[in-house]
Amino acid sequence: MTPNSLFYLLISIIIIVFLIDTLLDFLNARHYNDDIPNELQDVYPKDEYQKSIEYKKVNYKFKIVSSTISLSIMLLFFFLDGFAWVDHIARGFSSNPIVVGLIFFGIIMIGSDILSTPVSYYKIFVIEEKFGFNKTTIKTFFVDKIKSLIMMVIVGGGLLSLIIWFYQITGNSFWIYAWALISIFTLIMNMFYAKLIVPIFNKQIPLEPGELRDTIEAYSKKVGFQLKDIFVIDGSKRSTKANAYFSGLGSEKRVTLYDTLIKDLDNEEIVAVLAHEVGHYKKKHIIFNLVLSILLTGLTLWFLSLLIANPILSEALKVEQPSFHIGLIAFGILYSPISEITGLVINIVSRIFEYQADNYAKATYNGEALISSLKKLSKNNLSNLTPHPAMVFIHYSHPTLAQRIKNLRK
């Protein structure tokens, strides 16, 4: 394969992925006005359902416009030899491969962030605001971006530096050391995410003593789930949408409830949601997902090691001097079809796990309370009750609400 043919292969992959996603969005949009399944007739009052349809239509149009603009900018960057230009700037500061790589990706990241900020701003302060979801202030919006940027520089820059260093001293065997590094990092994040990362963006306070805490602790004791902490997070700081999640492993496991969840659901419904999360833990889904993530990371790095030293990757992007960072860009695009396939498999497994966690909540607590909570959350989030089957199959990590209710009532 010549550099020129590889260049057009990269362009083709980018365009094909865009067209597939656009087609799925189009098919999904055609189902917005479908009849509501019988199981979901009581989710929305008529006026609220029309509001949910309008919300979906606005988001669909917004995504089409923003993704088309993003594609156009990306293609323009490719055809104007943008990567060679950024590489030239980076090499003007240093000849050290690690420093050059950090500056290169720093410029790419800052440029991408500048271009994406207006899109994010419009999404939050126009669309989410219009439909009553937004609670984010302009100050919080920009403070979050600054914090995210600092974290990216420290964490992302640190990991990238070590990986390039591994490549410099071990050659194509770098993937083994990089895999070990990323695996350890992933394990630490799974263990201590709630302690290390969440406090940077949100306040977490222990759930106050009272009926809800007593009910949760009684349920945990009943199913033999040793719960160290129950925390409430100030999700209402940014949105009215509600959530709950389980984090940590072993002695570090904890349950976090959004304050919006406590506001929207009654105690029985909250414990039913918690029972679902406990089901994931009891069924070993947390461990399975962690192991799968680590194995897929190893597979990706191994593929990278087979191609990274090939100068054709840099030549295809019109960069004269082959380098790890340019090879990484080209590889990321070449690998994206495989990522789509592995993502599809992960979503299939995830939907199976969701059914299992629902069944656990039904068996150990109350299936109807879980159904009631799912309906309330869908209503309050203006969720899509009639997604296209293809969209569900490819992109949904959870079964649809109708599918979950049918399963719970079997």
Automatic annotation (TrEMBL):
<feature type="binding site">
    <location>
        <position position="354"/>
    </location>
    <ligand>
        <name>Zn(2+)</name>
    </ligand>
</feature>
<feature type="active site">
    <location>
        <position position="277"/>
    </location>
</feature>
<dbReference type="InterPro" id="IPR027057">
    <property type="entry name" value="CAXX_Prtase_1"/>
</dbReference>
<dbReference type="InterPro" id="IPR001915">
    <property type="entry name" value="Peptidase_M48"/>
</dbReference>
<dbReference type="Pfam" id="PF01435">
    <property type="entry name" value="Peptidase_M48"/>
</dbReference>
<dbReference type="Pfam" id="PF16491">
    <property type="entry name" value="Peptidase_M48_N"/>
</dbReference>
<keyword id="KW-0378">Hydrolase</keyword>
<feature type="transmembrane region" description="Helical">
    <location>
        <begin position="149"/>
        <end position="168"/>
    </location>
</feature>
<keyword id="KW-0256">Endoplasmic reticulum</keyword>
<keyword id="KW-0645">Protease</keyword>
<feature type="transmembrane region" description="Helical">
    <location>
        <begin position="328"/>
        <end position="349"/>
    </location>
</feature>
<keyword id="KW-0482">Metalloprotease</keyword>
<keyword id="KW-0862">Zinc</keyword>
<feature type="transmembrane region" description="Helical">
    <location>
        <begin position="286"/>
        <end position="308"/>
    </location>
</feature>
<keyword id="KW-1133">Transmembrane helix</keyword>
<feature type="domain" description="CAAX prenyl protease 1 N-terminal">
    <location>
        <begin position="30"/>
        <end position="203"/>
    </location>
</feature>
<dbReference type="GO" id="GO:0004222">
    <property type="term" value="F:metalloendopeptidase activity"/>
</dbReference>
<keyword id="KW-0472">Membrane</keyword>
<keyword id="KW-0812">Transmembrane</keyword>
<feature type="transmembrane region" description="Helical">
    <location>
        <begin position="174"/>
        <end position="193"/>
    </location>
</feature>
<keyword id="KW-0479">Metal-binding</keyword>
<feature type="domain" description="Peptidase M48">
    <location>
        <begin position="207"/>
        <end position="410"/>
    </location>
</feature>
<protein>
    <submittedName>
        <fullName>M48 family metallopeptidase</fullName>
    </submittedName>
</protein>
<feature type="transmembrane region" description="Helical">
    <location>
        <begin position="64"/>
        <end position="86"/>
    </location>
</feature>
<dbReference type="GO" id="GO:0071586">
    <property type="term" value="P:CAAX-box protein processing"/>
</dbReference>
<feature type="binding site">
    <location>
        <position position="276"/>
    </location>
    <ligand>
        <name>Zn(2+)</name>
    </ligand>
</feature>
<dbReference type="InterPro" id="IPR032456">
    <property type="entry name" value="Peptidase_M48_N"/>
</dbReference>
<feature type="transmembrane region" description="Helical">
    <location>
        <begin position="98"/>
        <end position="115"/>
    </location>
</feature>
<dbReference type="GO" id="GO:0046872">
    <property type="term" value="F:metal ion binding"/>
</dbReference>
<feature type="binding site">
    <location>
        <position position="280"/>
    </location>
    <ligand>
        <name>Zn(2+)</name>
    </ligand>
</feature>
<comment type="similarity">
    <text>Belongs to the peptidase M48 family.</text>
</comment>
<feature type="transmembrane region" description="Helical">
    <location>
        <begin position="6"/>
        <end position="24"/>
    </location>
</feature>
<feature type="active site" description="Proton donor">
    <location>
        <position position="358"/>
    </location>
</feature>
